Amino acid sequence: MKNIISKIILSGLVVGTVGLASAQKIDAKAKKILDDVTANYNSKKNSYFKFSFGSGVNGQVSKTEPGIYYAAGDKYKLKIMGTEQIFDGNKIYNINTEDMEVTVAKPNGSAAMFSPINYLTTYRKDYNVTYNGKKTVDGVSADFIKLTPVKDNGLEAVYIFVNSAKKQMLKLEQHGNNKDIAIIAIKEYKENQNLDPNMFIFDKNKFKNYIITEL
């Protein structure tokens, strides 16, 4: 389980270093949808997502876990699988309650940190983008967009499903070359809430009995 978390959630959804942008093919309709969603999220003071995270192999989801995610600007807090991650705008704090461990690290420039809107920005240089029509997701008519990496980054494709009327992402599927699959399905969305001012601050005093490792 730790490997699943570190590979897909806590270390981010991996994106590779690519070559010339001219090698890309980006469908104009898909680009507008993704840019509209990005602009909508960025216009909010903060956002909250309740989601389910599914993972498995051979294209089949074998395990599903609930999670919650808060974001304000570039700061966020994620809780899933008994693990909490805080990004305070400078460092990432991974808190494992089961093992009573905290790891602290600077963001790695070669990987994008977890965010429901991660691919809405990284597609601009890393992926070919196509519009694949409409699909129904949990009873909602969604625009289906497919991302394929310009260069090999371990992924076969990423599927994004968008409620264009509300300019919100409904679901994201990540398919690996090794047939691993990861799915984030957003179940609840709230915005512009009155959040605790300490929401994105790591308080070391609360973890005195934990092993804290700074990478």
TrEMBL record:
Checking Pfam families in the record gives:
LolA
Q: Which UniProt keywords apply?
A: Lipoprotein, Signal
Source organism superkingdom? Bacteria
Which named protein is this? Answer: Outer membrane lipoprotein carrier protein LolA
Organism lineage string: Bacteria, Pseudomonadati, Bacteroidota, Flavobacteriia, Flavobacteriales
